[in-house]
Structures are given as C-alpha cells and as structure tokens.
Design goal:
Layout (H helix, E strand, L loop, with lengths): L19 H15 L4 H16 L3 E7 L5 E7 L13 E2 L5 H8 L3 E3 L2 H7 L5 H6 L4 E9 L2 E10 L7 H42 L6 E8 L3 E2 L4 H7 L19 H14 L3 E9 L2 E13 L9 E10 L1 H21 L4 H12 L5 E9 L9 E7 L4 E6 L4 H14 L2 E4 L12 H9 L4 E8 L4 E9 L7 H4 L7 H38 L10 E8 L9 E7 L4 E9 L3 H21 L3 H15 L5 E9 L3 E7 L5 E4 L2 E4 L24 E4 L5 E5 L11 H13 L6 H13 L8 E8 L6
Length: 748
C-alpha cells in the first residue's frame, strides 16, 4: 500500500476513525444504556464494553460528589485492597491521575510505570504495578452540565491507548456521563414518587379511635343517659338528655341524622350515622350506632322498649379517608393535564371536592405579559361560577414577595374578620367579600417548586368552630395533619404547573424547529418518478432523518438519504446543517466521493462529534449511476420482478473520519445502470432495525416486501413497505423511505 506523505492540499491532517466493529460495539453499548435506569446499571454497561474493547486489566468509574470536591467509586475494580490511610473518596487536590483528569477536564495517559511514578505519588501506585498493570488512561466524563466523573482504565502493556482506542474510550466516557445524568434524573423522579406514596400512606394511617360513650334512649323521650365522653370532647356544661345533645351537632348533619333515626324506629332496625359536633378545636366527626331492644324479646318486630347505642370518635378516620381521596383525585386529574389551563382547571375542581369548600382560586403570573406583567386570578366557586381576572395593579415582584412570605410561614390559615389582618393588603377586600358570601375561613397556600415561586392557592371553607378564642382572633384552627395535607395538595399543583410550563416550552421549541426543518417537496425531474415517506420516533416531534433529490444539471440528479445518530431537537439541528452542506457540495462537484470527502472536512472543521450515515446516488438521464455509502444500509434495486441490495462499498459514517483522515475510504463508488421502469429504494435503519428485530432480519423482510411490489405506483410501494415493517405504529427511531423510478425520456 502506498504510504507516501500527503500534503495539506491533498487531505487534512490525520485523525483516527473507528472501524465497523467499534461502531457495532458502540451501538450495542447504546442499546444497553437505553435500558439502564440506575447509575450502577449505566456504569456496569460501559465497563463491560471497556473490558471487551480495550483488553483492560482493571477499569472503573469515579463520580464527582455532591460538593464537587472529591471523586467517589461508582463501579469497577482496582488491583488489591485500598492502601492503609486511603479514604474511599479521592479529593480533587490529590496527586493521582483520576484527580488530575477531573481537575483539568482533559485525558491523562500514562505509558509506563516510570511515568506514573514520576508524575504522581499516589499510595496506590505500587499496588497497581505489583498487580501487573503497565500503563493507564483516565478520561473525564463530561456533559453539557459539566463534569460527571472520570473513567479509569488500567492496561497490562506499556504504551497506554493508541489513537483509535482513545477515540473509543472518549466516546464511552461521554456515553457513560449522559447515562449517569439520565439515571440520576430517574432517581429524582422515583424519590419524588416515593415521597408522594409515603405522604398518601400517612393519610391512610388511621388513628385508633376508642369508644367515646355508651348510651340509652327511649322512643318519644330521646336520650336517657348522660354522655361524659361527649361532654369532655365538646366542653358542654348544659343538659344533654332528651334532645339537648342536638345543639352540638353541625346544622348540615342534623336533618339526615333525625331522618335515619325515624326510619330505623319504623323499621325496627339498627340506626347508624356519622355526624360532626362542635368542639373548642373545631368540628369533629363521630360515628353513632343504636340497636333497638324490643319489649318482647321473643318478638323482635314488636314495639321498642329502648335503644342502646355507642358513640365513637372517628374524626381521624374520616379526615384521613378524605385526604387520601382528595390526593388521589388530584393526582389522577393532574396526570392527564398537558397545558397550563388544564392544570388550573383540574386543581380548582379537585379543591372543590373537599368537604365544606366554598371556593378555590389560583393566583399566578399572567404569562402573556411576561415576567414583569400583571397577576392572573383563576377562581371557581361551589355554585359553578368561574372567573378569570387580570390584576393590572399587581406586579410580578409583589406577587413573588407575598409567595415567599407565605412559604416561610408554612401557609396562612385565617378565619373571621380578624383574619384579614394576616393577609396581604391587596387580598383583604376579596377576603372580606368572601366572608359576606358565607365563607368562614381561608387557607392560603404557597405554590413553590425547587426551581421557582409560581403563585398562591386559596381554599375557602364554610367550616370553622365559630366559638373558640383562636378563631375569634383571626386564626383558623387546623391540626398538623390537616396543614400537611393542604401543603401536599398545593405542592402537587405547583409541580404540575412547573411540569407543563417546561413541556410547553419544549413543544414551542420543537414546533419552531420542525417548521424550520420541514422537508420541502421533492424536486421535479422529467425523467424520474419519486416518492418519500418520513416519520419521527414515538413522542418526538422532530428527527434526524431526511431524504431529497438535488438537481445538479438537466441530465443529472443526486438521490440522497441521511440519518443523524440520535433523535429529537439535537439530531434535527444537525440534520439541517448536513442537508445544507450536501446541497452545496453537490452543486460544486456532485461525484459521490467528492461530496462525502467534503462532508468529512466540514465535520472536522466544526469539531462536531455527531455521527451521520448517508446513502448517495448520482443518477443520470441515460440511467448510468454512481452510488456510495457513509455507514448507511445499501439501496434496494427493483428490476425484472426481483429485488436485491446494491453492493455499495462500505464506508465509515460522516464524522468518524475526524480531520479528514482516511480520505481513500471515500474512493469506494459503485457504478451501475438503471433501466427504464427500474427502481431504487433508499431507507434509514429505523425501518429495518428495532429492539425486537435484528438488522439482518429487517433487511431481509424489506427486500422480500419490495420484491412483491414490482410495477406498483411508487406511493403504494413505499406506504406498503412502511406498513409491513412497522405495523403502522411509531417506533423507537426515526424512519425515512425514498423510492425513485426511471421513466426514460418522458415527462412526469
């Protein structure tokens, strides 16, 4: 092979590139990392690849601790036990290769034990050499957020890693960093879900409700025995006999209780009811059961001599059930809300399901007017009246100041006219108006998340004790459980508002990007028919696939299909850049080798590390064609009722030949002739490769499907191909298919 020097005019300086085996290894690692939901799973997946690809004696991952001052082992192995005095955490100030790689954010390569000893005095050095290690490499693990940790590799040979191995190790370190960052987000989400379940379980835990009283009652006379437990609970000194006890019962519960008693007397059955009684600490729930005692024990349907019953304090049980139902209902409603308006509506309706609630309102920044705009109030009343007010006299700064004070106080809980003094001045008139309309108390709750302060939630209630000194002083009486419940409810609303805001921003960005990168119509070529089908992966609005025809003269057209590895906004952005580069390069020199070399040079000049695969066919009016591939599946040729894959020389993806090295890898071009009526079908790997189907099986299925569509209209051929291989459902990857048919000298 000719190894004579190449001048700068002929090719850019040499940089390493990964071969097909390395790329396959990275693909398998990417698949394993996609299934890694914990940090340890991500680390283990990468270390397994490191051992396989680099023939390492030892390898390990060390993650930056929360303080950003030390590295913590996260997986892997070291030679022998840790030396005495060596802490499990490695400070970034230590004289060790891993610490230096973390400090400098640059790889550290040590080619021999002598170089290790000369540069570092880590106590671990002697152990590593004694265990047979002869060279080392430490690579920083970086993401857009910064340093995640380091990947350490120990090798049984001197010389450390060569250039290709360095590129592979750096890629693995980057993959590991991204996977660890994603796993930490999963951990945070799991912790939040676990905390929510714990809060719900807390409300499910019912207090042991002991028997309060046993009583007797007589038909027509009412209560015939005293209720000492009732007296202690309610603070009553007056007479309870007969109907005296009814003065303590909540007015809303008394009619139902009397109706149940009358019905039970007529039917001669037991009477059961739940009711609220007034106590110094507010209304409290009791359960009453009364069993009839007949005059004639042998005739249970005869007249009733008396009633024997029991009263139980079930307040904690009732409130816990109510809290649990409320949290479950709110969670269910918020889980389906995908817009700010949907969250507001779900939150207001859920709050009105709480017993005694008269109104619920959300006070938020008016989004349409910007961060320094007015304040929006969304209010829903028990009677169904809905209001949306914009308070132009309030500014964002004032609202956020009030929310901060409310959060610091753990919420404001006020009752009666005296409670107005505890509220911000601008809410007092609204509060006093609510009291006049029947409200008795308000709970004002802060809507805050770790990211920001959003506003406030107000729940108005018609329930209070009405007599206690605390309420008379303006403070509503709520126990710790009730306050925790209300704050948990507000926390769910705040989290949902924060979530949909992020979703709306992402959707807005995706819509703008999608519109900007939307493929235009295919170029009309008189002697060529063409049809294209494009879809993105499930849950993603934009993708990294594209296909088009580039007219490079009246007699020639470039048929192009490209695929940026990855998906979403990043892949779509790179796709737009590469698509523009292909058009420009094809207009200068449309030969496949020239276009692919130009793309390599663009990737090297920008320093981009994105990998792009490309299928490129330069087709002439007379049917002659030149086909080349940059790591892409070969096109299918449909001719004479049979389909076969073109034997296009395999070339590495664009971006793998960094700095333009290996320019001869682009010399592989297939010459062929496309007869009239013959067709080429190009596709991205999203069509043929899925988690459940290997690439070889998918390509065989695609060839078989195309072979059975000879002579069919191109649109039908493409649509049937996509439908057959995807079952019509969005997959895990972007998908693009482009089919062209030479028509000869006729017109379209």
């Amino acid at each position: 092979m000719d190894r004579s020097p190449v001048t700068a005019v002929d090719a850019p300086p040499h940089r390493p590139h990964l071969d097909v085996a390395d790329l396959r290894l990275l693909e398998r690692t990417t698949t394993r990392l996609a299934a890694a939901l914990t940090v340890r799973d991500a680390v283990d997946a990468v270390l397994a690849t490191v051992r396989e690809a680099l023939d390492a004696s030892t390898c390990g991952v060390f993650l930056l601790d929360d303080d950003g001052t030390a590295l913590v082992p996260a997986g892997g192995d070291l030679a022998g036990p840790r030396p005495a005095g060596r802490a499990p955490h490695l400070p970034l100030t230590a004289s060790a290769p891993s610490a230096q790689a973390a400090r400098t954010r640059a790889p550290v390569l040590l080619r021999s034990p002598g170089e290790l000893a000369a540069r570092f005095d880590d106590p671990l050095n002697e152990r590593l050499v004694a265990a047979g290690e002869r060279s080392w490499a430490v690579l920083p693990m970086l993401t857009e957020a910064g340093l995640i940790g380091v990947l350490r590799v120990g090798l049984p040979r001197e010389g450390s890693l060569d250039e290709v191995q360095q590129l592979l190790a750096a890629t693995l370190a980057g993959q590991c960093a991204c996977a660890v960052e994603r796993a930490r987000l999963f951990d945070a989400a799991r912790d939040a879900a676990r905390d929510a379940r714990r809060a719900e379980q807390r409300y499910r835990t019912l207090a042991e409700a002991g028997r309060l009283d046993v009583f007797t009652a007589a038909p027509g006379r009412g209560l015939t025995s005293d209720l000492p437990g009732w007296r202690a609970l309610t603070g009553r000194d007056g007479d309870l006999l007969g109907g005296g006890w009814t003065a303590d019962v909540h007015p809303a519960d008394l009619p139902g209780l009397l109706t149940e008693a009358a019905t039970a007397v007529r039917a001669g059955r037991a009477a059961t009811a739940r009711l609220r009684v007034r106590t110094p600490a507010g209304w409290r729930w009791l359960a009453v059961t009364a069993q009839p005692v007949p005059v004639d024990p042998d005739d249970p349907t005869g007249p009733v001599l008396e009633w024997v019953g029991a009263v139980e304090d079930v307040d904690e049980r009732v409130r816990a059930r109510r809290r649990t139902r409320a949290l479950q209902g709110l969670t269910a409603a918020l889980s389906t809300a995908t817009t700010r308006a949907g969250v507001v509506d779900a939150a207001l309706r859920a709050c009105l399901q709480l017993p005694g609630t008269t109104r619920a309102s959300l006070t938020l920044l008016e989004e349409e007017r910007g961060p320094r705009g007015a304040v929006a109030v969304h209010r829903l009343r028990r009677d169904g009246r809905r209001e949306h007010l914009v308070r132009g006299d309030r500014t964002a700064a004032e609202l956020l100041r009030d929310v901060e004070a409310c959060a610091a106080a753990g919420g404001w809980y006020v009752a009666g006219t005296a409670g107005a003094a505890a509220l911000p001045a601008w809410t007092r008139p609204v509060y006093l108006e609510a009291l006049a309309e029947g409200d008795a108390a308000w709970a004002v709750l802060p809507l805050v998340t770790p990211r920001r302060h959003l506003g406030g939630l107000v729940i108005g209630s018609s329930e209070d004790c009405g007599t206690c000194a605390a309420c008379a002083g303006g403070a509503a009486v709520l126990d710790d459980e009730e306050r925790c419940f209300l704050l948990a409810l507000a926390g769910q609303v705040a989290g949902a508002l924060d979530r949909v805001e992020l979703l709306e921003r992402e959707r807005g960005t995706a819509r703008v990007l999608q519109e900007a990168l939307k493929p235009g119509p295919l170029v009309r070529v008189p002697w060529l028919l063409a049809h294209r089908s494009t879809s993105t992966s499930a849950g993603v609005d934009v993708g990294g696939d594209w296909a088009e025809l580039v007219a490079v003269g009246g007699d020639r057209v470039a048929v192009v299909l490209g695929d940026v590895m990855g998906r979403g906004a990043r892949a779509a952005t790179v796709m737009g850049e590469v698509r523009a580069q292909v058009r420009a390069l094809a207009l200068v020199d449309p030969h496949p080798a020239a276009v692919l070399r130009g793309l390599d040079a663009c990737a090297a000049a920008t320093g981009a590390d994105d990998l792009v695969t490309l299928a490129y066919v330069l087709l002439s009016r007379d049917g002659t064609a030149l086909a080349a591939s940059a790591g892409h599946p070969p096109p299918l040729l449909l001719a004479g009722g049979t389909a076969r894959y073109l034997d296009v020389p395999a070339g590495p993806p664009v971006g793998a030949l960094l700095d333009g090295a290996g320019a001869r890898a682009r010399d592989g071009v297939l010459e062929l002739r496309l007869g009239p009526g013959e067709e080429l079908v190009l596709f991205s790997d999203g069509l043929v490769e899925t988690r459940d189907r290997p690439l070889d099986e998918g390509m065989a299925a695609a060839r078989q499907q195309v072979a059975g569509c000879g002579g069919a209209p191109l649109a039908e051929l493409v649509d049937d191909l996509v439908r057959a291989l995807t079952s019509g459902e969005p997959g895990d990857d972007d998908l693009t298919v482009l089919a062209v048919r030479r028509t000869g000298a006729g017109v379209l």
